[in-house]
Amino acid sequence: MTTTKPPLRALALVCTLSPSPSESSSQLIADQVLGALAEHGVTGESVRLVDHDVKPGVLTDMGEGDDWPSIRERMLAADILLVSTPTWMGQASSVAQRAMERLDGELSEKDDEGRLLTYGKVGVVAVVGNEDGAHKISADLYQCLNDVGFTIPAGGVTYWNGEAMQGKDYKDLDETPEATAGTTKTLAANAAHLARLLKAEQYPAT
User: Fold this and answer.
1) Burial 155-183 (b: 16+ CB within 10 A, else e)
2) What CATH number does the domain containing 133 carry?
3) Which pLDDT score, from 0 to 100, does residue 2 have?
């Protein structure tokens, strides 16, 4: 007996402070996660948020000129959401914080059975930086994502922190460190597995 796995989609919100076409470590690790997800039959795309006018606020639509509604449509069409952020002063970037604030608007959006529209979607995180902070950042983002309805898989983060007090970035490495490559593969395998389970059987109505 053969089982056909349902197709899955992923969206990466890249929260670098550098607009395109600048090189970005957050973009690089997001692309690596999307590549690892592709090995599990997940198609994906990324949005570099700084390239768009994402208005401040906590609504799903902040009115004229706000680019968030179109990004949100792509998020709602995806099964897996990746938030990829650099580390600044031990924190996620201000762009990542803006994205979390906009996701707060999902708390007012429910389906016909009372569930948030984000229920059944998987949230994962990628963090890069040359100072320690990945654990704190992933913990903060996990809580935000879970608060607005996303489910976090086991091993739901991949990251790289360089040596403190120096300036080498992830994008400047000659090759991806084995430990980071391994956590990226684990993230992709577990996220795809969980997303398929949730796609097959949604959370109960409230």
Assistant:
1) bbbbbbbbeeeeeebbeeeeeeeeebeeb
2) 3.40.50.360
3) 45
How far apart are the two ends of the chain, measured CA to CA in Å?
35
Find the DSSP H helices in the chain.
25-38, 68-76, 94-103, 134-147, 178-200
CA distances in angstroms from 151 to 94, 138, 143, 158, listed in the order given:
23, 14, 10, 16
- Average pLDDT on 58-81 reads 98
Residues with Cβ within 8 Å of residue 118, at least 6 apart in sequence: 76, 103, 106, 148, 149, 150
Cα separations in angstroms, 1 against 6, 55, 83, 192, 197: 16, 50, 37, 22, 19
Using one digit for the tens of pLDDT, what is the confidence trace for 19-38?
999 999 999 999 999 999 99
d(CA 158, CA 149): 21
Burial of residue 54, with CB atoms counted within 10 A of its CB: 0-12 exposed, 13-18 middle, 19 or more buried = buried
151 within some domain? yes
How confident is the model over 131-158, as a mean pLDDT?
96
Cis peptide leading into 21, omega within 30 of 0? yes
Tokens matching residue 66: 């706000």
Q: Within a domain: residue 206?
A: no
Q: Which domain holds residue 160?
A: 8-200
Type of residue numbered 42: V
- Whether pTM > 0.85 for this model: the answer is yes
Look at the chain and report how many structural domains it folds into. Answer: 1
